[in-house]
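Crash report, auto-generated. Payload:
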Amino acid sequence: MKKIIRSFLLAALCAVTLCTVGFGTYAQAADSSDVDYKIGSGSTDIKRFYDEANLIYDDNEQEIEQRLRNLSDKYGVDVIIAFCSQRPSEYDSYYTGYDEVWRTQQFACDFYAWEDYYHNGNLSADGVIFMLCDDDRTWAIESTGILQGAIDHSSTEYIFDQMKSYLSDDLYNTAVDEFINQAEIHFEGYRNGKPYIDGKHPQRLFDWVLRIVVWIVIGLIIGFIRVGSMKNQLRSVAVKTEASDYIVPGSFNLRNSRDFFLYKTVTRVKRESSSSSGGGSHHSSGGRSFSGGGGHY
Amino acid sequence: MALLEYKCPCCSGAIEYNSTVGKMKCPYCDTEFEMETLKEMDEAISEDTVNDDLSWDTKAGSEWTDADASGMVSYECKSCGAKITFDSTTTASSCPFCDNPIVMTAGFVGGLKPDFVIPFKLDKKAAKEAFNKHLQGKKLLPPIFKQQNHIDEIKGVYVPFWIFDSDADANMVFKGTKVHKYSSGSYNVTETSYYRVLRSGSMSFANIPVDGSEKMDDALMDSVEPFDVNQGVEFQSAYLAGYCADKYDVSPEESVERANTRVRNSTEAAFRATASEYTTLTTETNNIRLSKGKTRYALLPLWILNTTWNGEKFVFAMNGQTGKFVGNLPCDKGLYRKYLWSTVGIGTVAAGACWFLLHLIGIL
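Recovered output after restart:
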């Protein structure tokens, strides 16, 4: 019994240690001491939230605008969210060789560049834009400047995964909240020298709970296999349903062996692509370089 | 003029010639077949038909002579009903099957005289050693069980068996499939070809033992197999010295079903092995006809130990010819829980540590 208690205490200790190490990086994003958070070249005094598609209640727009302003000022970058009802028609007529996801990504990059143009080139060189196109339900998150090192293609997929259920249920306000939270977590990761790019993602408490559950399940499987094999050692009695030991050697004579082909069925299943989202780098009409991703929601 | 009717191999519906596709087509499942294939298949099945016939000549054993009977005495167990035979010099007090007291009957009651007996080759000492070895290395065995097992009460018993020999002629029809998977462009393609697989042939079985004792657990008796029946000798009462013999209480006619099941399964397995190239093989017809089937009555040597632990009865048996020892053992629930939870704890920590190491080196 003591051994069992010791095993569990050790398991609990390891789990807590791993949680502390892993979750610590996530918790750092919430620190609010007097430090300089700026990672970009400075934010600009511009409108940051555009809801041409009317997906957000007017009452909430002001609050979102303020949150984007605070986030941008804190990190010295420009964070923009734009919801459009549909892309300008020239994107569909001009970019004929590309799908609608790619066109939305391109529109997002151009949107950021136009904002820069309208503000006489004063927009921050470092920024990120989150765009939704309501008519074909496409999304794009594109980062530029120094933020390309904070949010890359894999980051955008991760951020979208966190918002996916909200967007599917048309909970746009909650999705915006999640985007702003995730943007801050990614900025913080970059500031700490551990950016969440190249497939590395922030660790959430739920991830750790899930991980520990998986370890316990692995432990249970190993445990049941071990005691199952021990229990099998106790059993040596079984009914015999065949008489292969009693076939006279050499007596088997195959008199007739004929196989007739009847018919054939063919089924074709289209392979699922690993990700429905588009990635890669884009350039805005002004030549500014962006990286990020997009997809359908 | 005879009207030929073909049945669909897929759904058994009546199929007809479809002039549009130039093939036989099933109107129910839309499967198409070449006319020649159906004709050839039909001919092949009809020219090699075997009707099911699993009958045996169950005449076994012979009548006892006075000289045989004079050297033996019969006892009866009032508890389990066993009729046990000893040589006349032995005084028996307990039943080898249930361990209850037995009483001598008025005269010798032996039923049929066995066709042969396989004498004991291993003595009680070997049986005790085998039993102790059987208990070793069993981590979930209750420690106290070993002390309370009454190993000295292990008894040598000649158990009645019916020995079946036969030739089997079989005709099998299987439905086989061959599955070929490949990628084509952005599609995963699965091609499944269906075949009718016909096999026929013969094989011989010799010395299939089926125990003729109601009191002996069939599974236990199956588990001590095999016996080398070629070492069997003519029965003499002298072989009973120091042992006892159980009288059969399951007739050969009643034992035939178990022999048939084993013959049928092994015959099918042998024919299936000739069609190993198929991904799946489903048996559609399995006809077996037995010939030259005969039955013999034999007494086979077994060391038997009956013991009760925590109100549950455990029976162990050792093949008195080969030394094979069998018998299920009790499981200690406390030890089971101890090993389970300690392994779960260690496994959980190990899984976490592995994850952490893989995370450190950047794989996860």
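Post-recovery validation: The longest strand of chain B covers residues 155-184.
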